[in-house]
Write a structure and sequence with these properties.
Strand content: 15-25%
Shape: globular
Order of helices and strands: HEEEHEHHEHEEHEH
Helix content: 25-40%
Strand order of the largest sheet: 1-2-4-3-5-6-7-8
Number of helices: 7
Number of domains: 1
Number of strands: 8
CATH topology: Rossmann fold
CATH architecture: 3-Layer(aba) Sandwich
CATH superfamily: Alpha/Beta hydrolase fold, catalytic domain
Length: 291
């Protein structure tokens, strides 16, 4: 089974065509993982005007994990949304999405899961990225999330009892696993997170379908019907398991949408599905974090 970066994410373009398309239009690659090259004419850029944005670190297990925090510049406190990156780490698209949440009135924070390995931003292809990312134990990522949540609760601009998390691709899987782990979360939104990942001793012992009954926070799932690596049947199974356990769950499947349909810098982007999903995501967090 193909995981994370699925076969339809390039939507029929070869990597050479992908690079050429970006180069013709002069789209810069700075800040994007080379293995996730942006697509000309589709990259969304969110300005920081009216926002307070800063890079920093959060200590986790004795290691300083890089974080990027953004919030409205106006005084006051905000609910918190923690943005869990794709397998490509905290690159420019994820930072941009973090700014989008801040524009919606949240203190948004993302982090670099692979900083201990030197990051993956510089790596040339998915195979190289996965050689770094795949051996990273889920337990370490969960501990990093614990550290980020603890840090966010102490942030002077945060509403400490109003914390949610969202993630994309592998980050979507981590979102679901963390929602089963943490009682701190009040809401979670998973964007095409893998539901039946391969299990590996010392790295991953369970997937989202295994932990469905332990998920406490209300979960919104956003998936593509044409995702080659996440069958719609798995999406419906998770939704059914959560509801059977008395959990709040809503899973939306977009007809014609492939994996990574929200990634506006890749050919998999589907503007209509992305717009609808973003509206649902914000409404979910408004309801459960602001309401």
């Amino acid at each position: 089974m193909v995981e994370d970066w699925l076969a339809n994410a390039y939507d029929g373009l070869s990597r050479r065509e992908f690079l050429a398309k970006a180069g013709v239009a002069g789209v810069g690659l700075a800040g994007f993982a080379l293995a996730a090259t942006p697509v000309a004419g589709k990259v969304v850029s969110t300005a920081a005007d009216g926002l307070s944005a800063a890079d920093g670190t959060v200590l986790s297990g004795g290691f300083a994990v890089p974080v990027y925090e953004v919030r409205p510049a106006a005084p006051g406190t905000c609910p918190v949304v923690i943005v869990i990156p794709e397998v490509f780490g905290m690159h420019e698209h994820i930072r941009d999405v973090t700014r989008r949440f801040a524009r919606e009135g949240f203190l948004a924070v993302t982090f670099e899961p692979y900083a201990r390995e030197g990051g993956v931003l510089h790596l040339p292809d998915l195979e190289a990225v996965r050689r770094v990312a795949d051996p990273v134990p889920d337990a370490r990522v969960m501990a990093d999330l614990d550290a980020v949540v603890a840090w966010a609760k102490q942030h002077p601009s945060a509403k400490p009892g109003r914390i949610g998390t969202t993630g994309f691709c592998r980050g979507g899987m981590y979102t679901l696993l963390y929602a089963a782990r943490s009682a701190e979360l009040k809401a979670a939104v998973s964007w095409y997170g893998q539901l039946r990942p391969a299990l590996t001793p010392g790295v991953r012992t369970e997937g989202p379908l295994d932990v469905a009954a332990r998920i406490g926070a209300p979960v919104l799932g956003l998936y593509g019907a044409e995702d080659l690596g996440i069958p719609v049947a798995d999406v419906r199974e998770l939704e059914t398991k959560m509801k059977a356990a008395g959990r709040t769950a809503e899973f939306v499947v977009y007809p014609g949408a492939p994996h990574a349909f929200f990634a506006d810098y890749r050919p998999s982007y589907r503007a209509e599905a992305a717009k609808d999903a973003w509206g649902r995501c914000i409404a979910w967090f408004n309801r459960y974090l602001k309401g």
